[in-house]
Amino acid sequence: MKLYDWSPAPNPRRVRIFLLEKNIDIPIEDVGGDNLTLSPEYVRAYPEALVPMLELDDGTRIGEAMAICRYLETLYPAPPLMGTDPLDAAMIDMWERRAWEQGMLPAIDVLRNSLPQFADRSLAGRHVPLPQIPALIERGRINLNQFFTKFDVQLEARHFLAGERYTVADITTLCAIDFASLSGVTLPGHCTNLTRWYREVSARPSSVLSVKRTDGKPNALGQ
Amino acid sequence: MKLYDWSPAPNPRRVRIFLLEKNIDIPIEDVGGDNLTLSPEYVRAYPEALVPMLELDDGTRIGEAMAICRYLETLYPAPPLMGTDPLDAAMIDMWERRAWEQGMLPAIDVLRNSLPQFADRSLAGRHVPLPQIPALIERGRINLNQFFTKFDVQLEARHFLAGERYTVADITTLCAIDFASLSGVTLPGHCTNLTRWYREVSARPSSVLSVKRTDGKPNALGQ
């Protein structure tokens, strides 16, 4: 198995954290190109043009971060990050999807519609020019505020988002929050539960921004 | 168990099809209100303000269509709609997510940013006004065309999207295509594989637009 990664992107980071939490050691290749693009070689070989992608030894390719995680969860069940019974798994899946749609998608909207490097690339994985839509920046910020407030309420009576155990719902939420902060969107002061949770989850060893890479380059922190 | 549904919406339809394919018989309540809204009673009782939602007998609520389906898949494993082994499950999950993000989200963008009923409600489940963004209509149409073409290629050598078995990847794709057609976006003539697949999947008894409801109203076809 080999994971195709792009270190600044929030999606593959979800899988990198998952691997670290489970202590799974597989080769990781960074396929970043110039000026915040994926390398032309990667896009040619994998026209889906998205990361992360897990390539199995027989050449089968699994895309979509949570599809990759679910596959790995079966192969490496400990520690469980996607639930221990059907209801637990459903609640984790629900909160992970909410974190994705209500947190990560607006964070992506804010960044991709403002950085000049993403002119004509306002969505990933598309093969036609998609102009930036400035109105999505403001809408993204409004959505992020609703996301922060909702998740703050959810964390009032729970240690982690889906209960007393750290799960993929926490992973996606962390990645969404960190990605939003790249655009200067930070946690509101009134979200004390979310801030408590953020401090604790960020301190886990898995939360470092990069993991062992095969290309020898420094991680996003220059380390 | 009880399913909260809104008959014109594409998301709960995914779960209704899933129930019919598995022959699961549970009460379904339509919580639609006036003028393409959810009823105020439902929103008050469930501030997440989204459908579908599955309420268990102890009051636990599961939101997000695929989280509900995964829960039901464990309780009612036959016929399997989410995979029969880890790799099969991963490929189905991957194609379902692509259908959702690359097909359904643009179809929603086109509809919600054009119908006057959705002025200030360009996304579902938000509690602050979100003005429509006309540029998302054109971007949605471009994305839908890429979606059609990509899924057409995938269906060239496969009976169903993730292989030889009908799965949730087919369900979400069907719902995305039908929802896009509400805005007048139809399958391009060159997508012959997708059209063959669409004709066959649409003919399944589960594909009817409504299912047994508890409110006695006619379905979206007036039947």
Secondary-structure blueprint:
The structure is a homodimer of 223-residue chains.
Chain A: E1 2-5, H1 10-22, E2 28-30, H2 40-45, E3 53-55, E4 61-63, H3 65-75, H4 86-112, H5 135-154, H6 168-181, H7 192-202
Parallel strand pairs in A: 1-2
Antiparallel strand pairs in A: 1-3, 3-4
Number of helices of chain A: 7
Structural class category of chain A: mainly alpha
Low-confidence parts of chain A, pLDDT < 50 over ≥5 residues? Answer: 210-215, 217-223
Order of helices and strands of chain A: EHEHEEHHHHH
Widest beta sheet: strand line-up of chain A: 2-1-3-4
Q: Beta-strand percentage of chain A? A: 5-15%
Key phrases:
homodimer, 223 residues, mainly alpha, Glutathione S-transferase Yfyf (Class Pi), Chain A, domain 2, 2 domains, 7 helices, 4 strands, 46% helix, disordered C terminus
